[in-house]
């Protein structure tokens, strides 16, 4: 990480596209850390607070909004709220690590607006049929919910051009390598290394 601050990697895409699995691959790289989002939804049976989400009441969430504690936040399907606390930027800076955000398309737009140097990665399923198969395989959603998720996925995928990179997640091993390559490549951008480059040039008398 350079003096420019932590590298911020945004990973987003439709529900069921495999974002979490690819984020796990990125977090296997040394010098990375996850931004843990806040949500007002109830935890699923397999979830515990603090790993992927901090589960908070709606009153607490609104208090955080009013206090300006979120880098981004949005209401999903007109029900639950999700948000990325700003504190993770400070934590990443203090630990000299790159910060990985797994957020939805609405959140990605907000973060890109505030942090234009962030690297935004869009994860796509290979087809509508495959996305529907994955959603059904989870066994968590009603037919109405599945229809809503598929329609929302269609709308979200229209936002692909606002991202820096796209990964088509049809082969997990390949997609994981691509996610790691994007993270490593983003670290090597000239704008992130100018201070170090100038120091090297000084050693040449330049």
Describe the structure.
The chain is an alpha/beta fold. It has a domain at 8-35 and 97-203: Rossmann fold (3-Layer(aba) Sandwich), CATH 3.40.50. It has eight helices and nine strands. It has helices at residues 19-27, 58-66, 87-95, 105-114, 128-138, 143-157, 172-187, 190-203, and strands at residues 8-12, 32-34, 37-39, 53-55, 70-76, 80-85, 98-102, 119-124, 165-168. A five-stranded parallel β-sheet has the order 2-7-1-8-9, with helices on both faces. Strands 4-3-6-5 form a four-stranded mixed β-sheet. A hairpin with a 3-residue loop joins strand 5 and strand 6 (80-85). Helix 1 packs across helix 7. The chain is globular. The two termini are 24 Å apart. The model has no long low-confidence stretch (mean pLDDT 91).
Summarize the model shown.
This protein has 206 residues and is of the alpha/beta class.
Write the layout of secondary structure elements.
Elements: E1 8-12, H1 19-27, E2 32-34, E3 37-39, E4 53-55, H2 58-66, E5 70-76, E6 80-85, H3 87-95, E7 98-102, H4 105-114, E8 119-124, H5 128-138, H6 143-157, E9 165-168, H7 172-187, H8 190-203
Parallel strand pairs: 1-7, 1-8, 2-7, 3-4, 8-9
Antiparallel strand pairs: 3-6, 5-6
Helix pairs in contact: 1-7
């Amino acid at each position: 990480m350079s003096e420019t601050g932590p590298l911020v990697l945004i990973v987003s895409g439709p529900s069921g596209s495999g974002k979490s699995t690819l984020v796990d691959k990125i977090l296997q790289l040394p010098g990375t850390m996850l931004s843990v989002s806040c949500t007002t939804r109830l935890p699923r049976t397999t979830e515990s607070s603090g790993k992927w989400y901090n589960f908070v009441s709606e009153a607490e969430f609104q208090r955080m909004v009013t206090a300006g504690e979120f880098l981004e936040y949005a209401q999903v399907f007109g029900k639950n709220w999700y948000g990325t606390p700003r504190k993770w930027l400070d934590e990443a800076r203090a630990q000299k690590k790159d910060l990985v955000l797994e957020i939805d398309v609405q959140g990605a737009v907000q973060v890109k607006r505030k942090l234009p140097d962030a690297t935004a990665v869009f994860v796509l399923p290979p087809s509508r049929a495959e996305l529907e198969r994955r959603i059904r395989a989870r066994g968590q959603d009603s037919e109405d919910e599945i229809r809503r998720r598929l329609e929302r996925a269609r709308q979200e995928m229209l936002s692909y051009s606002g991202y820096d990179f796209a990964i088509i997640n049809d082969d997990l091993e390949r997609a994981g390598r691509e996610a790691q390559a994007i993270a490593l490549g983003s670290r090597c951008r000239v704008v992130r290394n100018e201070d170090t480059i100038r120091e090297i040039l000084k050693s040449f008398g330049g």
